[in-house]
Design goal:
single chain; 851 residues; alpha+beta; Gyrase A, domain 2; eight-stranded antiparallel beta sheet; 27 helices; 59% helix; elongated; SecF_bac
């Protein structure tokens, strides 16, 4: 008794901690003001799709950085070779088949080979003892490349510094809590809540701001280069950098006191000030060009020495441009060029609509599920409903505690979590009902029911967790939010169903039990339960050929539809741009005419939802795809928005999604990989927990479910995007969950009496779990239907396919899994193999009879 009380205390403590963590999300503002900030500030963060904002994915141009570094090291090597009188010639740049930058040159004397290798090591030696240059000498040809370890460290340092510089630039613009993080090996993710038009931010982040000072070339100059200014004037400048922009410690955009024109004033550090004074003193009368990102900003004639380390950059600036230039000079130059390869922008109005739709669909689904549980199981359903409410509170508490961000797919995950959490409660109640029918006292029936349901609950939820973990590993942004929500929901639902519900049910049962011999049977007599009992007795195996034929036909049709006409792929997979816009003063014909007149004839426009609401689709052009869409797509978005805004000054851009070809190709590969690994992971787990033919029956059925769901995408015209991939992985988890319950019951019945015909055992297993299968599907549908109806277009790629998947998955559990299990089991039986491997106890018992 003391042990149980301790366990109960721990359960209550966990619940209280969860409620304590979740409470700040719903506390009124008047109460929050009376509580400590460290507590009230710990609330659930809203994703950009709910509060509005912009998400930019910046790709680093590593090729340019590596090429520049190799050229610099090669120049140092050539200087050293000249110092040692080693003769070489034909230095040129090549790229190997992998696109790697190389420097190749030849030398004359065979004896110089060792000297060249030694010189390369001396000019590129690293503190670690290695060399930055990788030197390959074949006959009289030397090939220089960057060392692999040095390259990795160089890129890591460059990306790290780029993240800090991007963060500084955004902070100085006054944005509210921008988030800047590394994503993958060569990308930076920028999230800006509340920014619905990131045009100025994109210009700010897309500018490297590499500033250098160069003297105009004359007869005394060494190697020279040609640069151009904004007016188109050409300048022949010395390649040698007279002064680097890294010496600038402060800069400001302001109006000149002399001309009244916008200028950029700057101040140099002490070393830069001395160098600047000396170079201007020694070069009076010469032109000094200030070059920003390979473009001449200004090129004044130096008339006198400039002491004090202060200067002024004049140019054709507007005041905002001068301020932005000064900001970039203050925060430092990006060590590596960045380009926008993905943009997702959600306006605040659309975010508000998403929150409202999410809350409405969530509340409606929750109410329907709770009402259904009470209608089916009476007071025991009410206990399960109470546990479900605690489960949702714990889930909110966990999300808040881990600083998770709630996205619209995350809300979908909450709703699906509730639907799936009911499964464990239904499974437990059905087991308790079976034990009660056998005449067990209430307390005993509850204890045994929970014990028998535990293994099935763990198996079914663990398989779902495998699929969800892949969403987290391979997903991005909102899809990861969905994965985190489902994963935490699985943990909390297992705890509340197995631990909390059991504790409450035992308390209620013991309170009603008068004595050990006199007890009131558990009340499981609702009309729905009586109806489910009448359904038992159907011969599923007898209908296996018809069921399997229908399933295969639907699968073949789905595959044919997938081939032609195919899926309606979203920009996540095709690349391109989608803009959702409201233009009150433009009809669709006028909007189409305006875009065509301005050279955007490739853009498809369709009416979308409400009046004067349009969807614009722009595919990636062949030129953009060839160039990796580094700047073109982002620039085209701004041009297009400008054109529409000039035509209709009341236009509102609700949403912008731009995905470059590199990103879309990566999404395609990762999605396929995630589905394959999910299937393989579940197969391995089922092989461990069950026999091979059990695992194969479940996996083959899930594959058939997947193909039919893909066919549904084609027939319904629902867009196939990353949210759709989340739906497919959720389907895998849900469908396997369903199959495991039936397979677990087949295994249990085989262990009780393996002498019965396999068809009888399978039919008995399916019928004994029929009410659980039907009720679980019903409650899951009740949770999903409001989301499919009220959730809007943002979650239709998840909600609608999941509704279809629940229906098709339930029917396949009853008919296809049982059919495959029977066919595979009979094949095993013909080979003389037992349906089940012997347990450890059976092996031990058989060994005991051996003398």
């Amino acid at each position: 008794m003391a042990r149980f009380s301790l366990r109960g205390f721990v359960y209550v403590l966990i619940v209280l901690l969860g409620l304590f963590s979740a409470a700040p999300n719903i506390l009124p503002q008047s109460l929050k003001q009376q509580l400590p900030d460290w507590y009230t500030s710990n609330t659930l963060l809203l994703g950009l799709d709910l509060q509005g904002g912009s998400h930019l994915l910046l790709a680093a141009d590593t090729h340019e950085l590596l090429a520049k570094q190799l050229d610099s090291l090669a120049a140092d090597l050539f200087s050293e070779l000249r110092a040692q009188n080693i003769r070489y010639s034909d230095s040129h740049i090549v790229n190997n088949k992998d696109g790697e930058h190389q420097r190749v040159f030849t030398f004359r004397d065979e004896i110089d080979a060792r000297k060249i290798a030694a010189a390369a090591f001396s000019v590129s030696a690293q503190p670690s003892g290695g060399s930055a240059l990788d030197v390959k000498i074949k006959q009289h040809t030397v090939t220089l490349t960057l060392d692999e370890q040095y390259t990795k460290q160089l890129l890591k340092d460059a990306l790290g510094r780029s993240v800090e510089i991007v963060r500084k630039r955004l902070n100085e613009t006054g944005l509210t809590e921008p988030t800047v993080t590394l994503q993958g090996k060569e990308a930076i993710l920028v999230q800006m809540p509340g920014v619905s038009d990131p045009a100025s931010v994109k210009r700010l982040l897309g500018t490297t701001a590499q500033m250098t000072f160069h003297w105009q070339a004359d007869s005394r100059s060494g190697p020279s280069m040609t640069r151009i200014d904004e007016a188109g004037n050409l300048y022949r400048l010395e390649q040698k950098v007279a002064l680097k922009g890294e010496h600038i410690t402060d800069a400001a955009g302001e109006l000149s006191s002399e001309t009244g024109q916008p200028v950029v004033t700057f101040r140099l550090d002490s070393a830069g000030a001395k160098q600047f004074a000396a170079m201007t003193r020694d070069n009076i009368g010469r032109v000094l060009a200030i070059v920003l990102d390979d473009k001449v900003i200004t090129a004044p004639v130096i008339n006198s020495t400039i002491p004090g380390g202060r200067g002024e950059i004049t140019g054709n600036f507007t005041l905002p441009e001068a301020s932005n230039t000064a900001l970039m000079l203050r925060t430092g130059a990006l060590p590596i060029p960045l380009s926008i390869i993905e943009e997702r922008t959600v306006g605040p109005d659309l975010g508000g609509d998403a929150i409202q739709a999410g809350i409405q669909s969530g509340v409606a689904g929750a109410v329907l599920v709770l009402m259904c549980m009470v209608a089916i199981y009476g007071r025991w359903g009410a206990i399960a409903s109470f546990a479900l409410c605690i489960n949702m509170a714990l889930l909110f508490g966990a999300l808040t505690l881990f600083d998770a961000t709630l996205t619209l797919p995350g809300i979908a995950g909450l709703i699906l979590t509730m639907g799936m959490a009911v499964d464990a409660n239904i499974l437990v109640n059905e087991r308790i009902r079976e034990e009660s029918k056998k005449g067990r006292p209430p307390v005993s029936a509850i204890e045994v029911g929970f014990a028998k349901a535990l293994a099935t609950i763990v198996d079914s939820n663990f398989t779902t967790l495998i699929a969800v973990s892949l969403l987290f590993m391979f997903g991005s942004g909102p899809v990861k939010g969905f994965a985190i929500t489902i994963a935490l929901g699985i943990v909390s639902s297992v705890f509340t169903a197995v631990a909390l519900t059991k504790m409450i049910m035992l308390k209620v049962a013991k309170a009603k039990q008068v004595s050990a011999r006199e007890y009131t049977p558990l009340d499981f007599t609702s009309p729905l339960l009586r109806l489910s009992d009448k359904l038992v007795g159907f011969n599923f195996i007898a209908k296996r050929k018809i069921a399997f034929f229908i399933s295969v036909v639907l699968t073949v049709v789905s595959i044919a539809l997938f081939i032609k006409p195919g899926l309606e792929y979203g920009v996540d997979f095709t690349g391109g741009t989608i803009i959702e816009v409201t233009a009150p003063n433009l009809s669709i014909d006028e909007l189409r005419q305006v875009t065509q007149d301005e050279g955007f004839s490739h853009i498809a426009i369709q009416e979308y939802g409400d009046q004067h609401r349009y969807l614009l689709r722009a595919p990636i052009s062949a030129d953009n795809a060839a160039q990796g869409a580094k700047h073109n797509n982002a620039a085209q978005i701004e041009q297009l928005k400008q054109v529409i805004s000039l035509t209709d000054n009341e236009v509102t851009f609700l949403k912008v999604d731009m995905v470059g070809p590199k990103v879309s190709d990566g999404f395609t590969e990762l999605s396929i990989l995630a589905l394959l690994i999910a299937g393989a992971g579940m197969l391995v787990y089922l092989w461990i927990r069950f026999e091979t033919h059990f695992a194969m029956a479940a996996l083959l059925t899930v594959i058939l479910d997947l193909t039919k769901t893909i066919g549904f995408f084609v027939v319904s015209g629902v867009e196939f995007n990353l949210t759709a991939v989340a739906a497919l992985l959720a389907l895998i988890g849900y469908s396997i969950n369903d199959k495991v319950v039936v397979l677990d019951r087949i295994r249990e019945l085989l262990r009780l009496d393996a002498s019965k015909p396999l068809s009888v055992i399978i039919n008995q297993a399916v019928n004994s779990t029929l009410s659980r299968t039907v009720f679980t599907s019903l409650t899951t549908l009740l949770a999903l239907l409001p989301m499919a109806w009220l959730g809007g277009t943002a979650v239709e790629s998840f909600a609608l396919p999941m509704v279809f998947a629940v229906v098709i998955g339930t029917s396949s559990t009853l008919f296809i899994t049982s059919s495959l299990m029977y066919w595979l089991g009979m094949q095993r039986q013909k080979k003389g193999k037992a349906q089940l491997k012997p347990t450890a106890e059976e092996i031990k018992a058989s060994l005991a009879h051996i003398p």
